[in-house]
Automatic annotation (TrEMBL), chain A:
Cell compartments where the protein resides: Cell inner membrane; Membrane
Species in which this protein is naturally found: Rhodanobacter lindaniclasticus
Membrane topology, from the record: Multi-pass membrane protein
Protein known as: Transport permease protein
A GO term from the CC aspect: ATP-binding cassette (ABC) transporter complex
Entry-linked InterPro entries: ABC-2_transport_permease, ABC2_TM, ABC2_TM_bact-type, ABC_2_transport
TM stretches of this protein: 29-48, 60-79, 106-133, 145-166, 172-193, 230-250
Keywords: Cell membrane, Membrane, Transmembrane, Transmembrane helix, Transport
From TrEMBL, chain B:
Organism annotation: Rhodanobacter lindaniclasticus
Keyword Transmembrane helix: no
PANTHER family, per the entry: ABC TRANSPORTER ATP-BINDING PROTEIN, ABC-TYPE MULTIDRUG TRANSPORT SYSTEM, ATPASE COMPONENT
Transmembrane segments: none
Higher taxonomy: Bacteria, Pseudomonadati, Pseudomonadota, Gammaproteobacteria, Lysobacterales
Gene3D superfamilies in the cross-refs: P-loop containing nucleotide triphosphate hydrolases (3.40.50.300)
InterPro entries: AAA+_ATPase, ABC_transporter-like_ATP-bd, ABC_transporter-like_CS, ABC_transporter_ATP-binding, P-loop_NTPase
Domain of life from the UniProt record: Bacteria
UniProt keyword terms in alphabetical order: ATP-binding, Nucleotide-binding, Transport
Family annotation (SUPFAM superfamilies): P-loop containing nucleoside triphosphate hydrolases (SSF52540)
Domain ABC transporter as annotated: residue spans: 12-243
Pfam family, one: ABC_tran
Protein's recorded name: ABC transporter
Length: 258, 320
């Protein structure tokens, strides 16, 4: 199939995903904003007001806003694609795409675009809510935008792979519960890893979420625990690796073809 | 929509196709068959015979263990995209997102084939109208009846205007009126040049629609011929006679076995070459008046059961 017809297929998958997200906006867009509002109230306002300044001249509320925005982006990107693609497997509507002449990359990135769109909308809403609690001056807008985009793509790809392997709905809840949530909490959302002693500080560098949170925090506040260039390199490496893995699974038909 | 049939490669060539699943079940044991362009081809077989596996391989949902299938000369294994572009599939199970609207389901399907949205919308309207679904086009698909959902899958399969339409039990559980409207639609599509492969358990459907037939059982093709030739092999027919009055003694007619079914019903089993006049003369002579008459079973059904039973030797049963 020519690339122009694959682009039509890509657009179709992405559009269908975005329409689905908007159709059920009360399930896809509102709950994460409410959750993050609670984080802002409890950790930022109630507890944060007793913590004082952190990493220079930032209030604790200002410090955690980038981490919480990135956390909502990661979670929504992952959950969107894993539940949507597994749902398509479950009710077999995925066969519509599998029997069509479209390329595997069009299936994969159609879903990724949908997941990233939801993550960015949720991230923007969370950022707007944050402005009710604190003031923010965006230090490096393009860096911030690139960080959320890459972070959302990474977790969309991971969610897709999870859905490919999942054989029941429980399987798509396991990874967020046992992997993503712990990594997020330990990835510098609520603290700077400079506060940690060794070996925890060194171990934290093995957490990919650390790089996403810090790249975005650099974009918003201008501070980071890690090299920003290194953070982007790590994120690009993850995207390349996960894309190759997802395309390999699609080519082999793992969990999809007999 | 019409296609030139001259100089065209066969619509489908299945060449020594084998499929062994991971659990060791050999679903296809070297199946070969050819379907010519423009044909209306019946693929019949009992449950678990291998029909769905074969269709799964043709539609690339199942990977063959060995052998190949070519759609208008395009290998399903090596030229998947080109082959899939030529196929429309109506699967046995409902497999669309029931929360979407029929119009969107059709337009998205076209998009997966690279068809621009404007043309896709025109086709969706055309086929939803032809299949009498237009009034439901913008309601959620889950609100539709079972028959409507099956017609929606036909409309969806037509979005890429395929040269080969595969219908896997499209009328299962559908009432006779809707079934007939589906036959009418598919016959028109076939008359316009689309090759159709039909699997069904309604054998009268296959008999009235299809020109050629293959019967598969235990992963092997046990018959592959024209419908006319197959039906000609049936040498015995059974008629059911509804009588005006309860008969007395039944006549004895050479070559015809007459049996009482109930007080006013007889069954007559006779050779196809034997004329019915002999039977009616004998009945009239005995003062028996026949009110109405019908064939006991569908002819193809008779043959189908016979062929499948012939193929089921104790050794094969054991092997299966």
């Amino acid at each position: 199939m020519s690339s122009s017809t694959n682009l039509v297929a890509l657009y179709t998958v992405a559009r269908r995903e975005i329409v689905r997200i908007l159709r059920i906006w009360t399930q896809t867009l509102i709950p994460p904003v409410i959750t993050m509002t609670l984080y802002f109230i409890i950790f930022g306002k109630l507890i944060g007001s007793r913590i004082g300044k952190i990493e220079g001249d930032f209030s604790y509320m200002q410090y955690i806003v980038p981490g919480l925005v990135m956390m909502s982006i990661i979670n929504n990107s992952y959950m969107n694609i894993s539940s949507s693609f597994y749902g398509a497997k479950f009710q077999r509507s995925v066969e519509e795409m599998l029997v069509a002449p479209m390329a595997n990359w069009a299936i994969l990135y159609g879903y990724v675009i949908g997941a990233v769109a939801r993550a960015l909308v949720v991230g923007a809403l969370v950022l707007v809510v944050a402005l009710f609690f604190t003031s923010l001056h965006v230090a490096h807008p393009l860096t911030a935008l690139a960080a959320v985009l890459l972070g959302a793509v990474i977790f969309a790809l991971a969610g897709f792979i999870n859905a490919v392997f999942a054989s029941k709905f429980d399987d798509i809840a396991l990874v967020p519960t046992f992997v993503i949530t712990p990594l997020t909490y330990l990835g510098g959302v609520f603290y700077s890893i400079n506060m940690l002693g060794e070996p925890w500080r060194a171990i934290s560098h093995a957490n990919p979420i650390l790089y996403m949170v810090n790249a975005f925090r650099y974009g918003i506040l201008g501070i980071s625990d890690v090299s920003v260039g290194g953070a982007f390199a790590v994120m690009l490496m993850f995207i390349a690796g996960l894309t190759m893995a997802a395309l390999y699974l699609l080519r082999r038909g793992v969990g999809l073809r007999s | 929509m019409s296609f030139t049939q001259n100089d065209s490669p066969p619509a489908l060539v299945v060449d020594n196709l084998r499929k062994v699943y991971r659990n060791g079940v050999e679903a296809l044991k070297g199946v070969s068959l050819t379907v010519q362009p423009g044909d209306f081809f019946a693929l019949l077989g009992p449950n678990g015979a291998g029909k769905s596996t074969l269709i799964g391989i043709l539609s690339s949902l199942v990977n063959a263990s060995s052998g190949d299938a070519r759609v208008f000369g395009r290998s399903v294994a090596r030229e998947r995209s080109e082959a899939m572009r030529l196929i429309g599939l109506v699967p046995q199970e409902i497999n669309f997102n029931q929360f979407e609207k029929p119009f969107d389901i059709c337009v998205n399907e076209a998009g997966f084939y690279g068809i621009p949205r404007k043309l896709a919308a025109e086709r969706a309207e055309k086929y939803l109208k032809e299949l009498r679904l237009w009034d439901k086009a913008f309601h959620q698909a889950r609100e539709m009846s079972g028959g409507m959902k099956r017609r929606l899958m036909i409309a969806r399969a037509m979005m890429n205007e395929p040269r080969l339409l595969i219908l896997d039990e499209p009328t299962a559980g559908v009432d006779i009126e809707i079934r007939r409207s589906m036959w009418h639609f598919v016959s028109a599509i076939n008359a316009a040049g689309t090759t159709v492969i039909l699997t069904t358990h309604y054998l009268e459907e296959a008999e009235s629609l299809c020109r050629n037939i293959a019967i598969i059982d235990h992963g092997t093709i046990i018959e592959n011929t024209s419908m006319k030739r197959l039906l000609a092999t049936l040498d015995v027919e059974t008629f059911v006679l509804d009588l005006a009055e309860p008969p007395g003694e039944l006549p004895s007619v050479a070559g015809i076995a007459l049996r009482r079914i109930d007080e006013r019903t007889l069954e007559a089993e006779m050779a196809r070459k034997q004329d019915l006049n002999t039977l009616f003369s004998a009945l009239t002579h005995h003062g028996i008046t026949v009110h109405s008459m019908r064939t006991k079973t569908n002819r193809l059904e008779e043959l189908f059961v016979r062929l499948v039973e012939q193929g089921r030797t104790p050794e094969r049963e054991k092997a299966a």
